[in-house]
Amino acid sequence: MEEKQYWTMEELSALTDTVQSGEVEYGSKSLVVQWCELTEAEEPKMSLPDDDLPDDEKNAKYAEMGQNKVIAMIMKANDMNPDGISLSKEVWEKLPSTVKYSVSNVVLGGTVSDFRNG
Questions:
Q1: Is the pLDDT confidence value at 44 over 80?
Q2: Got the DSSP string for 40-61?
Q3: Burial level of 113, CB count in 10 A (0-12/13-18/19+)?
């Protein structure tokens, strides 16, 4: 049985200065993605959806908020590591939604099979 590992505060705060990368598999190919965790000040500014909105509109607003965060994390890493750019904002807009979903899961989930610090 593996011993449980715990984060130190130094390790966690260092993530906002560390480019991370992983691979997203789509079809029979892989896409390398890099990102960097954001500080609260770097988070994209958006207001929460009004509680009176229909559920589909609220869900769309939350999806937009998540997508903006993923894009911001990728752009921050691109600025820190321009040699590792695989996705730009322009390319992101053209990706199939299933690829965007997979990239978002990797970036926001923090779990990838080929996780490495860049």
A1: yes
A2: GGGSPP-PPPPTTS-HHHHHHH
A3: exposed
Of the candidates 80, 49, 69, the one whose C-alpha atom is nearest the C-alpha of residue 109 is: 69
Asked if the model's pLDDT at residue 112 lies above 60, the reply is: no
User: Tokens at residue 65, please?
Assistant: 């908020």
Cα distance between residue 9 and residue 1, in whole Å: 25
| Single pTM value for the model | 0.83
